[in-house]
């Protein structure tokens, strides 16, 4: 089933994105299909990924037969056997991209393998949802769509598709290709999964603008200093490298990841304690419940995986490495690391907002506790000195009604920003980040 879904996704990519798609040379050097000074580069060993995804179905005769029948029909119509003919998937975005332009630009994607241009083009032209015309561009078979995308078959080994400007420049021999340099070239050549992202000031400004203030302050600070990101698999590890313009930013990134790990550890420990309490109250038959066993297994796996994450800093470069635990390596082969990378990305997309929300709530609770401590100190001060006309937190600290000056843990509220308000009802305390204490006492 997983394999069939993956085949469908690949075919949809070939059809939908394939507002696109034989002669250019034998084995195409895929690095020559990357923009010079590309802002973004992605490579995946699609062939290995597809082969691994089909390994489960191949063990079950009925599923294997169904899979083979579908594959045979696809091959009959398109000349394409996804498992046999698809190798690498490469994508890049050029430095001149304009994300505000309604027309797609500076985008180029490539599939390598073995393709029958005539059959594939005929099948794509039948697609009713997308109007595609088959044309010849400098002797190359091209597919042109109305949505600003085109495709070309480069020989029988390479298929490219992307925005019209990029594809047409490739067809005319005017495409400005660039070589990845140094370590990036090595990672690109040797990895099953690789991506590289370079950030210019305009991109950073656009990201912050589109987030509309929804970026946590620490993330905004780190983004402003971030120069580039790259990730790749180096079995048995997945590696993420972040280069910053300043050493302090790399150290702050490490602190952020450490905080995330600490929070995750606290949450896992709390869940483990909760499950242990359930087990202590359960009878022998309740202990056999799948959800109870499953949760214990998930907690154990979570603790093991969390311990496999390490971050090191070297100057202004931070390297986050996830090493597959030894006990998982028999199950997870090198070519499956891209699946793990995708899974990690999904988990991060879910976990980071929740982590930020939990952190914000914890900061609010700590701030409220600070304000109540200040309010109590004000009452003590009043008992000894009658009602003052004005009063500050520093006054309370100097006269030892407070052991120290409370500090709001929020990034927005710094030392000395708590304000004491004296009114007819007594005292109120205000934090510029979380508001007045009276609002929380209602």
Segments where pLDDT lies below 50 for 5+ residues?
1-27
Described by strand count, sense and barrel closure, the largest sheet is: 12 strands, antiparallel
Q: Let me know the average pLDDT.
A: 79
Share of helical residues: 40-55%
What's the number of extended β-strand segments? 15
Output the strand order for the largest sheet.
4-5-6-7-3-2-1-8-9-10-12-11
Return the string of H and E elements: HEHHHEEHEEEEHHEHHEEHHEEHHEEEH
Gyration radius (Cα, Å) is 29 Å
Sheet-strand content, in percent, reads: 15-25%
- Class by helix and strand content? alpha+beta
Terminal residue distance: 55 Å
Number of helical segments with 4 or more residues: 14
What general outline do the C-alpha atoms trace? elongated
Detailed description of the structure:
The protein has 442 residues and is α+β, with helices and mostly antiparallel strands. Strands 4-5-6-7-3-2-1-8-9-10-12-11 form a twelve-stranded antiparallel β-sheet, with helices on both faces. Strands 13-14-15 form a three-stranded antiparallel β-sheet. The longest helix has 49 residues. The radius of gyration is 29 Å and the shape is elongated. The N terminus is likely disordered.
């Amino acid at each position: 089933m997983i394999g069939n879904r993956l085949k469908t996704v690949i075919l949809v990519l070939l059809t939908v994105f394939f507002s696109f798609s034989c002669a250019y040379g034998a084995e195409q050097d895929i690095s020559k299909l990357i923009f010079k000074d590309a802002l973004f580069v992605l490579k995946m060993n699609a062939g290995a990924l597809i082969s691994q995804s089909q390994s489960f179905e191949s063990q079950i005769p009925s599923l294997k037969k169904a899979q083979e029948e579908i594959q045979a029909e696809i091959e009959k119509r398109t000349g394409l056997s996804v498992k046999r003919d698809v190798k690498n998937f490469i994508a890049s975005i050029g430095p001149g991209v304009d994300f505000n332009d309604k027309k797609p630009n500076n985008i180029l994607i490539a599939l390598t393998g073995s393709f029958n241009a005539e059959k594939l083009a005929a099948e794509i032209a039948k697609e009713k949802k997308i109007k595609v015309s088959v044309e010849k561009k400098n002797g190359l078979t091209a597919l042109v769509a109305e949505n600003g995308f085109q495709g070309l078959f480069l020989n029988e080994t390479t298929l490219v598709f992307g925005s019209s400007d990029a594809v047409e420049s490739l067809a005319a021999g005017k495409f400005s290709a660039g070589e990845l340099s140094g370590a990036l070239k090595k990672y690109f050549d040797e990895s099953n999964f690789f991506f590289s992202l370079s950030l210019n000031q305009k991109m950073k400004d656009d990201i912050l603008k589109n987030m509309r203030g929804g970026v946590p302050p620490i993330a905004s600070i780190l983004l402003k200093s971030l120069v580039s990101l790259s990730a790749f698999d180096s079995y048995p590890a997945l590696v993420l490298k972040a280069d910053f313009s300043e050493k302090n930013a790399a150290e702050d990134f490490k602190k952020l990841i450490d905080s995330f790990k600490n929070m995750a550890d606290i949450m896992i420990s709390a869940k483990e304690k909760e499950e242990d309490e359930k087990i202590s109250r359960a009878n022998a038959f309740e202990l056999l419940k799948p959800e109870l066993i499953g949760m214990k297994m998930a907690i154990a796996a979570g603790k093991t995986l969390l311990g496999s994450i390490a971050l090191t800093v070297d100057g202004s470069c931070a390297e986050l490495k996830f090493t597959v635990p030894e006990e998982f390596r028999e199950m997870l082969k090198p070519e499956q690391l891209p699946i793990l990378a995708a899974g990690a990305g999904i988990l991060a997309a879910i976990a980071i907002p929740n982590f930020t929300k939990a952190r914000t709530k914890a900061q609010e609770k700590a701030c409220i506790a600070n304000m109540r401590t200040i309010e109590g100190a004000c009452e003590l001060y009043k008992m000894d000195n009658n009602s003052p006309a004005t009063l500050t937190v520093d006054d309370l600290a100097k006269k030892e009604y407070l052991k120290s000056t409370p500090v709001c843990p929020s990034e927005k509220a710094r030392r000395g920003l708590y304000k004491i308000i004296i009114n007819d009802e007594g005292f109120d305390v205000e934090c510029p980040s979380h508001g007045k204490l009276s609002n929380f006492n209602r």
